[in-house]
Amino acid sequence: MRPSAWSTQQLAEFVAVVSSSQTEASAALAAVERAAETLDAKVAAILNDGRLMAAVGYPEGTAPVAELGSVPPGDAGVDVAVPGVGACSATAVSLEYPPGATLVLARSDPGGLGPEEAGLLRGMAHVTSMTMRTLSLLSAERAAREESDRNAAVNARLLVTLTERQARLEQLAEEQAALRRVATLVAGQAAADDIFAAVAREVGRLLRADGGAVCRYEPDGSMTVVAGWSEQGVHLPVGTRTELETESVPAIVLRSGGSARLDWREGRSGPVADLMRRHGIRSSVAAPIVVEGRVWGVMIASSRQPEPFPDDAESRIMGFTELVATAVSNAASREQLAASRARIVATADQTRRQIERDLHDEIQQRLVTLTLHLQALKDSVPADPPELLAQLSHVDDELRALLRDLREIARDVHPAILSEGGLGHALRALVRRSSLPVELNVGAVERLRQPVEVAAYYVVSEALANAAKHANASVAYVGLEVRNGTLRLAIGDDGVGGADAAHGAGLVGLTDRVEALGGTITVTSPPGAGTSMVVELPLTPAAVGRLEPPFDRRDPGG
After folding, report:
1. CA–CA separation, 95 vs 116, rounded Å?
2. Measured distance CA(216)–CA(225) in Å, rounded
3. Three-state DSSP state, 222
């Protein structure tokens, strides 16, 4: 074979062997083995910056790295010691990759490599460099891909975790917003019915339920719906009263004092299952409303979806049931306060009437009789001496003045004209006695229940007295009308204003009297712009709500 054909064939075989390597280290080892075999070298090695990458011809761990590394690339005739052979002529060629690496061969032929062999060695060095560079890039790419895959897996897990946490945060935010809306109603002392309706709506929407209800347990073992909500707007009407069935969630809650849930299953029978099937309800969850340590009622959410409620549904309802319990307690306290106020006002009015009767029937009559006796005595006394007659006349004048003062006191304690002629007549008499000009607009007012007439009279009396004493007013006005079952009083003056409804004892007393009747009083008194007062009183007694726990109710027959 011609030398050129020989070298080409050898280089092709070298390429086939080295390029089949999988790593840089195996490529380096294949290169030195094939180069030594092809060029009949005793030893071959690849070195890089004083580090041995691969070698053949030396027992493992005995290759003279320093000696081999001292062979300069391109030169021939440098001898290296080969075990069992002796000094051999070494030849080195540079590798393009890794940078600074060399391929060194040593053989016993003292003539060194011929031109064809030297060319073949350079070709082998080039192939080795390309192969090792390619394997390095592939290894880096593979490592990068593996790192990318690991990062992708980590990112995927992080994304799942973040998604779950984001969903939980959104759930908590939604729950907190719903609780805040209900708590605002409770703190603002909204009507209990409004709070119950808000809770039924908020719980239903929060749990993605199809319906929600707030129910109160009754002493006879039944249950009354006090609020209801549904996505379609169809639910049991407020006031609906139903018997408790043993298998129902309200019965379970009342019996256990804890939360409960009920899931519908095929084949289940009984009244509760029939009711659930009829309304398409697949699951219900409920939590007790506990007031003062006793179960007052129950909060229920129901769903038509095939999936059951989440595991934490009961605990999420509990925050709302606590607010309902607070609302019930607050409402009961307000009712007790209103009842206490009403009793105090009624007692005070009764006492006033008794004092007025005592003054009129006893003391006033005795003074009238004493005045008549004194007049008779004065008529029987001779004109001389004049001093005695003058003294009797002075005593007579003092008695008559005392009688007038007593009548004024009796009128202020409880005006008889209010009981006899009604509110319109009493207000006209009050205006006539006022030291301040008053514009009165009363019109025809029928007789009202006594507490309303008394409260209205004293509100006008106190307001006019304040205007005359403190407001430096030139005129006052009083307006009265009855509309939609409510008595409305409007009182004002053109005085200096600045009245403080929170600190005036008279205004505080009027507020107690008005609110005891279920009414409202609003005072507006900007400095320099006069004072106005608007009072609204219901003409019928306010209905007392049934909010107190069943264990506080009294048996009428007991």
Report:
1. 19
2. 6
3. strand
> Which among 470, 541, 538, 480 is positioned nearest to 506, based on CA atoms?
470
Confidence of residue 55 (pLDDT cuts 50, 70, 90): very high
Q: What is the DSSP letter of 551?
A: G
82-99 confidence digits (pLDDT tens): 888 888 889 999 999 999
Question: Residue 491 corresponds to which amino acid?
Answer: I
Instruction: Tell me what pLDDT residue 294 has.
Output: 86
Distance between CA atoms of residues 411 and 405, nearest Å: 10
Q: What's the confidence (pLDDT) of residue 557?
A: 33
Bridge partners (DSSP) listed for residue 188: none
512 sits in which H/E element: helix 505-516
- pTM, two decimals, is 0.46
Residue 103: strand, helix, or coil: strand
d(CA 472, CA 81): 128
Check whether 259 has a pLDDT greater than 60.
yes
What would the DSSP string read from start to end of 410-423? HHHHS-HHHHHH-H
Question: Dihedral (C-alpha) 516, 521, 527, 531: value to the nearest 10 degrees?
Answer: -110
Q: How far apart are CA 412 and CA 399, in angstroms?
A: 20
Contact 282, 276 (CB under 8 A): yes
- DSSP three-state, residue 13: helix
Helix, strand, coil percent values for the chain (each to nearest 5): 50, 20, 30
Whether 53 contacts 47, CB under 8 Å:
yes
The structure tokens listed for 169 are: 């945060």
CB 471 within 8 A of CB 482: no
pLDDT at 554: 33
